[in-house]
Amino acid sequence: MSDTTTPGRKINATENTFDFIEYLHDNGEATLGELTEEMGLSKGTVHTYLATMKNSGYLIQDGNKYRLGLQFLELGEGVRNGIDIIDIVRGSLREIIDKVGGISWFIVEEGGHAVFVEKATGKDSVQPYGHVGRRTTLHDIAGGKAILAHLPESRIDEIIAERGLVRKTDQTITREAELREELAEIREKRYAINDGENLEGWRAVASPIIHEGEVLGSVAVSGPKHRMDGKRFSETVPDLVTAATDEIQLKILSK
After folding, report:
1. Per-residue pLDDT, 198
2. Are 69 and 59 in contact (CB under 8 A)?
3. What is the percent of the chain with per-residue pLDDT over 70, rounded to a whole number?
4. Sheet-wide strand order for 202-211
5. Domains, the chain, ranges and CATH?
6. Distance separating alpha carbons of residues 115 and 153, to the nearest angstrom
7. Are strands 30-31 and 65-68 parallel, antiparallel or unpaired?
8. Would you give the DSSP letter of residue 41?
């Protein structure tokens, strides 16, 4: 049977599918009516999309509500396993947490966003936000700034132009000149900090992973302000994350 669907309509269908996925990812679950209103499509068309995704295992129906299925977990694990240095980084994340507690993260840049790829958590960790696979802005988290500081200037320009410098808290850097000044300091110190810039009362320290002049990602440690204070925030954790990224870089060279 010949395919009479035009290329443009194929692209629209694909875009619609991704819109459904992103909406359910952001909102957790939704009814047929909510999705119909959000997508601006007819109820019959939306139902067809949902039925197709459900039959493929990518959608779960619970009563009158739909949510993403565990099939996406398998895909996500495949993507993570495809990142060459993930096994090296994973061990370092655990070593850091064994020493200072909290949560440690491996973060990469993709499409101008920070993407949380891997994490390790301590027994006393508190996690008000963030999960593996989460995407957020680069300019207001330590791991994102550590990466930004080591990107080419032209790439930094593109990211700022495309993503802006959105304010999350009163501490968020929203002036480009101020951000560039901090990026220069990060390059000199070899680590970045986040002091309530993305979430009030939350702090983080991060160091970049660099190989042959290219930033591959960053290692970050985060925790509530009352646990990341004083010398722990200004010296202990910065020393640990920079030592960890030094070790990771040496292991990459020896592969």
Report:
1. 94
2. yes
3. 87
4. 135-136, 113-121, 103-110, 214-224, 202-211, 192-195
5. 7-69 (1.10.10.10), 75-253 (3.30.450.40)
6. 20
7. antiparallel
8. -
**Tokens 């802005």 identify what position?**
137
Residues 6+ apart with CB under 8 A from 153: none
Kindly state the tokens that stand for 106.
């491996």
β-strand partners of 221: 104, 205
pLDDT band at 13 (very low <50, low <70, confident <90, very high): confident
pTM for the model stands at 0.70
Query: Which of 84-91's residues contact partners 24+ apart within 8 Å by CB, and which partners?
Result: 85/209, 85/216, 85/217, 85/248, 85/252, 86/117, 86/118, 88/248, 88/251, 88/252, 89/118, 89/209, 89/217, 89/219, 89/248, 90/118, 90/120
Secondary structure (3-state) at 62: strand
- For residue 6, pLDDT over 70 is answered with no
Task: Provide the pLDDT confidence category of residue 5 given band limits of 50, 70 and 90.
Answer: very low
pLDDT at position 123: 73
For residue 214, the SS3 value is: strand
149 phi-psi bin (left φ>0, alpha ψ -120 to 50, beta other): alpha
Question: Per 3-state DSSP, what percentage of the chain is helix, strand, and coil (rounded to 5)?
Answer: 50, 20, 30
